[in-house]
Amino acid sequence: MRLLLDQGLPRSTVRHLDAAGVESAHVGEKGLATASDAKIIDFARQGGWAFGLLSSVSVYLLMLDETIVPSWHGENCSSMALS
Question: What is the pTM of this model?
Answer without folding.
Answer: 0.67
